[in-house]
Amino acid sequence: MALISAFYDALGRADYAAMESCYHPEVSFGDPVFQEVEGRDRVMRMWRLQLGVRDGLKSDYCDVAADEHTGSAHWTSRYTFSSTGREVVNEIDALFRFEDDLIVRHHDEFDFKRWSKMALGRPHGLLFGWTPMWRKTIRDRAAQQLDDMR
C-alpha cells in the first residue's frame, strides 16, 4: 500500500522522479486513451504528456488495497482540458501488479464516454464519445503526441 500511496503523492506534486522510482524498468501502463504503453521511459513520457496538457492537475486517491503481488486504488483527476478549456473531473479505478517491490503493471479504467463529454463538450463528446471511430481518433492523437515527445 505504501508504494501506491507514494506514487499518487508524487503524481499530486507532479514529481516525475518520485513517480518513476515507483515503476519497474519493464512497466506497462494501460487506460482507455493510451491503451498500452510499454517500458518505464515511455510510460514516464506518457505522464509528462498528460500532466503537460492538463492545466492545474489536482488528484486525490482513496481505497488503496494491496498484497505482495497486486494492488488497487481509486483516484480522482481534476484539471482543465487544454484544447477546449473545459473542466474535467475524472473518476478512475487503478489496478497494479508488483515485481521486485515496484509497479510492473498499472492499468487505469474510467468511463470514456463520460470523460469525452466533459473534456470535449457538445457536440463531439456528447454525440461521438461512445463511438469506436471517435475513440480511435482520440487514441491515435494521443499515440502521435506520445511519439512526438521523443
From TrEMBL:
<protein>
    <submittedName>
        <fullName>SnoaL-like domain-containing protein</fullName>
    </submittedName>
</protein>
<dbReference type="Pfam" id="PF12680">
    <property type="entry name" value="SnoaL_2"/>
</dbReference>
<dbReference type="InterPro" id="IPR032710">
    <property type="entry name" value="NTF2-like_dom_sf"/>
</dbReference>
<feature type="domain" description="SnoaL-like">
    <location>
        <begin position="5"/>
        <end position="106"/>
    </location>
</feature>
<dbReference type="InterPro" id="IPR037401">
    <property type="entry name" value="SnoaL-like"/>
</dbReference>
